[in-house]
Amino acid sequence: WLSSSSEQWAGWAIIMDFFNPFSQIWYHALFYYIIYTSLIIFFAYFYTAIQFNPAELAENLKKYGGFIPGIRPGSHTKEYIEKVLNRITLPGAMFLAGLALAPYIIIKFLDL
């Protein structure tokens, strides 16, 4: 009974080590970096979608007499705001991903 129990705990320790982001397994796994970067970019777009409502912004601009030069109020303003948000979210998300990956890259190249 004791030997099978210790074998179960050893298997459980391997699983726990695999899911530990600070484990040595992860520092050399390209798959982890890809998933990590993808999640950062996804959640950056998700956060932007939750925080900024282009339809509401366009409506408020029109309601209070504001406008974007060269863009007609209403649906054109909404489309323009969506386009701008999509354009500026990607570089911001990539910067955040680079910032988040910097410690892993430094650890890998300095062999820490």
TrEMBL record:
<keyword id="KW-0812">Transmembrane</keyword>
<dbReference type="GO" id="GO:0015031">
    <property type="term" value="P:protein transport"/>
</dbReference>
<protein>
    <submittedName>
        <fullName>Pre-protein translocase</fullName>
    </submittedName>
</protein>
<dbReference type="InterPro" id="IPR002208">
    <property type="entry name" value="SecY/SEC61-alpha"/>
</dbReference>
<dbReference type="GO" id="GO:0016020">
    <property type="term" value="C:membrane"/>
</dbReference>
<comment type="similarity">
    <text>Belongs to the SecY/SEC61-alpha family.</text>
</comment>
<keyword id="KW-1133">Transmembrane helix</keyword>
<keyword id="KW-0472">Membrane</keyword>
<feature type="transmembrane region" description="Helical">
    <location>
        <begin position="88"/>
        <end position="107"/>
    </location>
</feature>
<dbReference type="InterPro" id="IPR023201">
    <property type="entry name" value="SecY_dom_sf"/>
</dbReference>
<dbReference type="Pfam" id="PF00344">
    <property type="entry name" value="SecY"/>
</dbReference>
<feature type="transmembrane region" description="Helical">
    <location>
        <begin position="25"/>
        <end position="47"/>
    </location>
</feature>
